[in-house]
Specification:
234 residues; alpha+beta; Ribosomal Protein L22, Chain A; 2 domains; 4-stranded mixed beta sheet; 3-stranded antiparallel beta sheet; 7 helices; 11 strands
């Protein structure tokens, strides 16, 4: 079993393996509703990404609660955020998952809400147009003031920090992205400004030079520990 202290957040990096044998192993652990959801994806790449992310989640979560991956059951909040359906001890393990273009981040903590997000930095993205539509005016102005060479990274820093926050809240896009503010300039400290920002801690993640990520945990004083999931289960 994995030991998870009350003041710890564990963040695992997983390169999602699309080898047929690994995907088959994952599929044998999925519930019927997860299999149905996987089959609704139009493109095999998206389907395989979902299966792999859920398979990794089940294998890691099983290590924290001491049960087999196949036996885990999930409940879902009003906005679709999953939680473990289990006895009170196991229910204290909170988790969140994000994956983008073959890389996943999975975060675990005891008894506290958390959210994680990861994105591949894509320089071709229409960052200014999307920022004007979804970011706060302060964020859009900060983004436009940066050199073109930094804008793509800054955009995805902002996006992942916002996503991690609303995922931690468990309310999805019922929280308008422009209703709170995060810092986004590369190399500057991460910062969250919201009506309840004192309730949360924000951390920047750099799981791979091509990606940026963010973690939001309820409360403060966390010790964030990092792990690497491998397809052989080690």
């Amino acid at each position: 079993m994995c030991e998870l202290g009350d003041s710890e957040i564990h963040v695992w990096r997983a390169y999602l393996d699309s080898q047929e044998a690994v995907l088959h192993r994952f599929e044998t652990t999925l519930s019927s509703d997860e299999k149905a959801r996987a089959n609704r994806f139009h493109f095999p790449r998206d389907r395989n990404g979902f299966v792999a992310a859920r398979g990794v989640l089940r294998e890691l979560l099983a290590k924290y609660v001491g049960r087999g991956p196949r036996g885990l059951q999930f409940d879902y909040g009003p906005q679709g955020k999953p939680s473990l359906r289990a006895n009170p001890e196991e229910n204290s393990v909170q988790f969140n998952v994000s994956h983008s273009h073959g890389l996943a981040l999975l975060a675990f903590a005891r008894g506290r809400h958390l959210g994680v997000d990861v994105e591949l930095i894509r320089p071709e993205f229409a960052v200014d147009e999307i920022a004007d539509r979804y970011f706060s005016p302060e964020e859009a102005m900060e983004l436009r003031g940066l050199p073109p060479s930094l804008r793509a990274e800054a955009f995805f820093l902002c996006w992942t920090r916002k996503e991690a926050y609303i995922k931690a809240r468990g309310e999805g896009l019922h929280i308008p992205l422009g209703s709170f503010h995060v810092s986004l300039t590369p190399g500057q400290p991460e910062r969250l400004e919201s009506a309840d920002s004192s309730r949360w801690s924000l951390y920047s993640l750099r799981p791979d030079p091509r990606y940026v990520g963010a973690l939001v945990g309820e409360g403060g004083g966390w010790r964030v520990r990092y792990g690497e999931w491998k397809s052989d289960g080690s």
